[in-house]
Design a protein that fits this description.
single chain; about 75% helix
Length: about 240
């Protein structure tokens, strides 16, 4: 959310704290109670959207990084064993084909890396069974990079979906914030009409003052002051 939106939400949250000190006044004035109920529901809805967006995006990013790390480690293990076979048999062409380092996979281009990992897996799978046995190129060692590549692609898709969710939620936020702002204005109007009530059973002036303080927009840049009419600003630096 931008600064203005955050300021509105912050005001809504602070008003909720201020209202808790005046349950008698709320219970006595049903229109004010209804407006307060609306405010509370809107604040909860906006907070929930923010929390869902943050959690989904963070979780998907973490899953993607974990999958890439596993893919890099598994690939490095497979590559090292396959390269050992190529060097032992003096097959330099195979050595080049089998070489795929941890750094290449962990920090390279994601799409290309996944393709390179799968190419390596296929190349090792094509080796004779006895070679795979002798050089400890077991099914588990060969399959681990392939499974990690699948997990990485799935995590990448999940991250894309998670990033799309905030964009969809952002479309709803302006309406929720507009309604919250309207609810706060209504509450102020209702309290303003009650602030002169001197009934000792209630604390309307204090309630109104507390509301006004809580509802101040904080964090917004101050507007430039207007030049008084008839006194245009001088351009020569004089006052």
């Amino acid at each position: 959310m931008d600064t203005r939106a955050t300021s509105i939400l912050d005001s809504g949250q602070r008003v909720g704290l201020a209202v808790k000190d005046h349950p008698n006044e709320l219970a006595y004035f049903p229109p004010l109670l209804a407006a307060e109920t609306t405010r509370a529901e809107l604040v909860t809805a906006i907070e929930a959207q923010q929390a869902t967006q943050d959690t989904a995006t963070t979780a998907s990013t973490t899953d993607k990084e974990t999958a890439r790390e596993q893919m890099a480690q598994a690939t490095a293990t497979l590559s090292a064993r396959a390269v050992g076979y190529a060097l032992a048999t003096n097959q330099l062409g195979l050595k080049q084909a089998f070489t795929l380092s941890y750094a290449d996979v962990r920090y390279g281009e994601a799409t290309e890396d996944v393709n390179h990992v799968r190419d390596l897996v296929k190349a090792v799978q094509a080796l004779p069974a006895q070679v795979r046995k002798d050089y400890r190129l077991t099914d588990a060692v060969i399959q681990a990079p392939a499974d990690a590549a699948d997990a990485f692609e799935q995590a990448d898709d999940d991250q894309t979906d998670a990033k799309a969710a905030p964009r969809l939620a952002t479309l709803a936020l302006p309406e929720l914030l507009r309604r919250l702002s309207a609810a706060l204005r209504l509450m102020e109007t209702l309290l303003k009409g009650q602030r002169t009530d001197t009934d000792p059973k209630f604390q309307w002036p204090a309630f109104y003052a507390a509301f006004k303080e809580a509802n101040k927009r904080r964090g917004l840049p101050k507007r430039a002051g207007k030049t008084a009419k008839g006194t245009p600003p001088k351009l020569d630096g004089t006052v």
